Amino acid sequence: MPFYVYILASKRNGTLYVGMTNDLIRRVHEHRTGAADGFTKKYGVKTLVYFEDAETAAVAIKREKRLKDWPRAWKKRAIERENPLWRDLYGDITT
After folding, report:
1. CATH for 60
2. How far, in Å, CA of 44 to CA of 58, rounded?
3. For the chain, first and last CA: distance in Å?
4. pLDDT (tens digit, 9 = 90+) per residue, 78-91?
5. Phi and psi dihedrals of 89, rounded to 5?
6. CA distance 17 to 21
7. Which residue in 7, 13, 47, 55 is deepest, having the highest Cβ count within 10 Å?
């Protein structure tokens, strides 16, 4: 079973959220629809701007913690390296 580490944004250069999941489509949908109370709902963080695969839950958790500890500038650099226009990648993973 694949696992994912992802970054959501409220808008380009906006509020960022780092998470991990074993079902990226379901989890991002939950964020987008406000199904999950918490940070992303409170701050309108709904746009999938970055994600990466991980082979195991342990690897994904370790990577998520590492990304959460990164300075904001590093997170922005990672996003812009893979997604320079901060496109919403949700459509890419649902088709």
Report:
1. 3.40.1440.10
2. 28
3. 19
4. 999 999 999 999 99
5. -85, 0
6. 13
7. 7
